[in-house]
């Protein structure tokens, strides 16, 4: 069953407000068997209070055992089947920095990295090089020239930048060059279908020229390419849910994904507190708000358990400001798990809570992975979250006679 097609026919307009707070990479693991996760270790009195008021559950972003990337993880939260609507990270990054993709484009998300004398990666993110240093390097790569192809290079944030190739006959099905580990050289890109062979050759030329331009840099002396993708075609929040939707985020990739599903980017916040400022200011203007917090994920990827705990506590601290707005439905979740123990995204379900006046409640007294296992939401797929939100907001009519 296509949940979105079902919802399209049942959507009912009203004046309700839905807020979805997303702590990226929220789920975690204990460092030792029987211990507490990062979320369970953190002091989260406000989230715990929400858990007592609402209902909790364990959410699978894609399917059991499948580790999601950030794009698919968020698409699931937004109610889009991530397998059906497979949007590459390149398109997300490009859209997020305001680049208008055309049907002749293939976008690629790139990372600056650090290479040793043998060409092996010693740091996949070039020491998380600050934006003020990485942006000039990205601009330097605009010197790359490829016959018959327009090449656009745009800085994103920290070690990230985006490259867009524009020409006829480009396909977006090319493999990543990031090996996802250190001590090995970047991978060679591979075209996975005949339509992408031209893109492969273009990418190889870009990598060769860019390598020469970056040689000698102290940290960002190399790059990797991820998420080759053409311009996607997806229905909007307005079309599917009848919602005027707003996105409040710091990082461009999440802004890009929100724009691709028809959300309006609101404000230009740089911190979580500023994101809540924007939410307060825009609250009367929209029906749905997606508010994204990045640093629970990045601290997990760094393998820093204590820092992820600290970021989780910072996330908890803004909850009273959101509650004060009295949204009809308040959801707290993550797009995937990023346990510090694994230093990466993982397949583990994400603790999720939903608060609404018509919630039945459940036995959960705290918000955490273990407690969520016994919550009333049960074990569910991310694509079911938006229909639940709409139902609690009174925005879904009855199905059938």
Please give a quick description of this structure.
This protein has 401 residues and is α/β, with parallel strands linked by helices. Helix content is 31%, strand content 19%.
Please outline the helices and strands.
Elements lengths: L2 H6 L9 E6 L14 H4 L3 H9 L1 E6 L9 H8 L11 H8 L8 E11 L5 E3 L7 H10 L9 E8 L2 E7 L30 H18 L7 E9 L6 H5 L3 E4 L3 H9 L3 E2 L6 H11 L5 E6 L1 H7 L3 H13 L1 H5 L5 E5 L16 E7 L12 H4 L5 E4 L3 H8 L9
Parallel strand pairs: 1-10, 1-11, 2-13, 8-9, 8-10
Antiparallel strand pairs: 2-12, 3-4, 3-6, 3-7, 5-6, 11-12
Overview features:
401 residues, Alkaline Phosphatase, subunit A, 2 domains, eight-stranded mixed β-sheet, 15 helices, 13 strands, globular
Q: Can you describe what's shown?
A:
The chain has two domains: about 5-85 and about 235-390, Alkaline Phosphatase, subunit A (3-Layer(aba) Sandwich), CATH 3.40.720; about 90-230, no CATH class. The model has no long low-confidence stretch (mean pLDDT about 95). Strand 8, helix 9 (about 250-260) and strand 9 form a beta-alpha-beta unit. The protein has an eight-stranded mixed β-sheet, sandwiched between helices. Strands 3, 4, 5, 6 and 7 form a five-stranded antiparallel β-sheet that branches. It has 15 helices and 13 strands. The chain is globular, with a radius of gyration of 21 Å. The protein has helices at about 5-10, 40, 45-55, 70-75, 90-95, 130-140, 195-215, 235-240, 250-260, 270-280, 295-300, 305-315, 320-325, 370, 385-390, and strands at about 20-25, 55-60, 105-115, 120-125, 150-155, 160-165, 220-230, 245-250, 265, 290-295, 330-335, 350-355, 380. It has about 400 residues and is an alpha/beta fold. Helix 5 (about 90-95) crosses helix 9 (about 250-260). The longest helix is centred in the middle third of the chain and has 18 residues, at about 195-215.
